[in-house]
Design brief:
globular; mainly alpha; 334 residues; 75% helix
């Protein structure tokens, strides 16, 4: 049995990671105590009360959400593979699969988690266009690709309105890179997606368009400085000492992988003024990708870390131990 599992993990590593992710998410769906109520608290978004006491609806919804979250793993893998080697991409897939907060958040209807596949796919398309052009594999940007990317980013907005900040970061980055047409094409796709989801859907449900979006923007977004959330994100959610390595790597590749770093950084800075810890989940994958790739590029060329590989391994072991402990804690108490 062990030999078969080893052969399977070597021949199909990504599928093996996805299988592991499925197991962890099934456990999260069964063990966690959180209800299926959403983190979004607006008058237009209400779950019928009788659903909350129906175990079949509770657990089936958790399993569906957990299955949908597998897209986050595959997309994080594909994005990393664009800027790094396959081994690094697989390591990021493991992060997305078993990092302690991901399984728990994946099986609950948190709007930021549900929006993540759309945001990541839009980011993937834009990043790939720039990499292909830089490598002279294409002569010019494909406008249709940017429209499609904007459409998926717009779908992310339809699920999580806070993701507008992330999209603004994408547009600003494209403008910094002097890709005016790409920014414009993505905006066209974005407007199309928002128009369809917020007008047609709301007309069917509420008999007038843009009900949900209007109510959202009538609620104050910035309610005061809350830097503790950012500290929590960097030092607790990401677990030291790995969190410090990722933070270093994240800023180290700011210019090199600006399409990943700048939108995440803008979103992270805006989170200081928001009292919503789930909001930080929106940038978790891109933060992990940029931070880990940046850190790995550094320690491979560092004389200190080359001489002290035992210390690096110790840091990874500590992180793994704490991560497992946090998974157990989450399943028992949350």
């Amino acid at each position: 049995m062990k030999e078969k599992l080893l052969f399977f993990s070597i021949k199909h590593p990504l599928l093996y990671i996805l299988t592991l992710a499925i197991v962890v998410r099934i456990l999260a769906a069964i063990c966690t105590n959180g209800s299926i109520t959403s983190a979004v608290d607006f008058n237009y978004y209400r779950i019928p009360e009788h659903w909350l006491s129906n175990p079949w609806i509770v657990y089936s919804s958790r399993l569906i959400l957990g299955a949908f979250s597998l897209l986050i793993i595959t997309l994080a893998y594909r994005i990393t593979k664009l800027i790094a080697d396959k081994t690094t991409a697989l390591e990021i897939a493991v992060f997305a699969a078993v990092f302690w907060v991901m399984p728990y958040a994946s099986v609950h209807p948190i709007s930021t988690m549900i929006a993540l596949p759309f945001l990541l796919y839009g980011t993937l398309l834009i990043l790939k266009q720039h990499i292909l052009l830089d490598n002279n594999e294409i002569e010019k940007f494909h406008r249709t690709t940017f429209i499609i990317a904007g459409f998926f980013l717009g779908l992310g907005f339809a699920v999580c309105f806070q993701s507008l900040i992330y999209y603004i970061g994408i547009v600003l980055t494209l403008l910094i890179l002097k890709n005016w047409k790409g920014a414009l094409m993505s905006l066209i796709g974005y407007v199309i997606a928002v128009g369809i989801t917020q007008s047609v859907v709301d007309l069917v449900i509420y008999h007038r368009p843009f009900v949900a979006m209007t109510e959202f923007f009538q609620t104050p977004l910035f309610t005061g400085i809350n830097g503790s959330l950012t500290i929590n994100f960097v030092l607790f959610w990401l677990i030291p000492p790995m969190s410090l390595m990722l933070l270093f790597g994240f800023f180290r590749v700011l210019r090199k992988y600006i399409l990943l770093v700048l939108p995440a950084l803008i979103t992270l800075l805006c989170s200081i003024f928001m009292y919503d810890i789930d909001f930080l989940m929106m940038i978790m994958p891109t933060y992990l990708i940029a931070g880990y790739v940046g850190w790995k590029e550094f320690h491979k060329n560092s004389a200190f870390w080359t001489k002290n590989k035992w210390l690096l391994l110790t840091c990874y072991v500590i992180f793994a131990f704490l991560n497992i402990a946090m998974i157990v804690f989450t399943y028992i108490y949350l």
